[in-house]
Amino acid sequence: MAEMIKNTAAPEEITKKDVTKAYLRWHFANEIPHSFERYLAPSLLYGMMPILRKLYKDPDQLKAAYKRQLLFFNTQLSWGGGVITGLMSSMEQQRAEEEYENKEVMMQDDLMYNTKAGLMGALAGIGDAIDSGTVQYIFIAIAVPWAQEGSPLGAIFPFICFALYQVILGVFFARQAFTMGRNASGLMQSTGVQTAIETLSVLGLFMMGILAGNYVKVTSALKFGISGREFVIQDILDQIVPGILPLAVVMGVYLFYTKKGLKVTQALLWLTAILIVLAGIGIL
User: Fold this and answer.
1) In angstroms, how far is the first alpha carbon of the chain from the final one?
2) Residue 212: what are its φ and ψ, rounded to 5°?
């Protein structure tokens, strides 16, 4: 009957080093075990496994913790993944201590999952707006001149900088969320953080506009003569609304995405066909 005796060893202390390791495991395994049933939950569990093993010495409790962290989960890599990895580490630590000391378990499964489910969508929206909609375009804008000059740095710089940025940001959020515990969710919804998010979103729109204005090149070749005087349409447009043709192309693609969804291949094919026709009849 020895195998029926449960191991009642105390949970080990969780350090910031453990939380950093958990986030890095989540980060680099993020999309590998992706499934339609659980989405990114296997990646989160893989990240949390070393921490759960330190907390739960009883096999049944460890299995229950594994199942808890294997429920449906999907969020953005650094903002959502960082905060939630740190927060789940803190909540699991509290749960393990309650079970070991035979106290009333306040950190119930539903509370833990509802916290995770409530944050994962909101944090994903924040992360996508700031990282994908702002930060990566800043790195690209810095590197575009190098790429135009034929330097390999133009392709490598945005990739390396953005990758390092997400790792550092994710580790920072994971450690801060672990330290703050359940108060981390309140911080992310505070007025100051929301103001910073809105500011960065506006900055992202400016960066996208700058990129479109500088690197989308569309000009009109149309010209005509009246009473011996030649009128060049492009010169007239430049005097009235400079950059109107690139803006029209960008807005046209935007409206296509709004109506048809993010169908990039279709947008490229339609745009190519339209530009070929307009160039063929001498308008562009």
Assistant:
1) 86
2) -65, -45
Separation of alpha carbons 242 and 235, rounded Å: 9
Q: Considering the entire predicted model, what is its pTM?
A: 0.64
In degrees, rounded to 5, the angle at the alpha carbon of residue 79 between the alpha carbons of residues 39 and 167 is 95
Nearest to 24 by CA among 163, 134, 162: 163
pLDDT 10s digits, 40-69: 999 999 999 999 999 999 999 999 999 999
C-alpha distances in angstroms, 43 versus 48, 49, 85, 115?
9, 10, 11, 18
| Mutual angle of helices 59-68 and 41-55, in 10-degree steps | 150
The per-residue pLDDT for range 98-141, each reduced to its tens digit, is 888 888 877 888 888 888 887 888 788 788 878 887 888 889 88
As beta bridge partners, residue 229 has 226
pLDDT above 70 (res 80) = yes
CA distance 191 to 13: 34
Task: Give the residue, 184 or 31, on which the prediction is more confident.
Answer: 31
Q: State how far Cα 248 lies from the chain centre.
A: 29
Question: Hey, what are 217's tokens?
Answer: 């090149």
Nearest to 44 by CA among 17, 19, 73: 73
Nearest Cα residue to 178 out of 10, 13, 11: 13
- The pLDDT, as a whole number, for residue 226 is 74
Q: How many CA within 13 A on the CB side of residue 247? A: 8
Here the tokens at position 136 are 């990566």
Number of residues that this document lists for the chain: 284
Question: 106 Cβ partners below 8 Å, 6+ apart?
Answer: 94, 98
What is the distance of C-alpha 145 from the center of its chain?
26
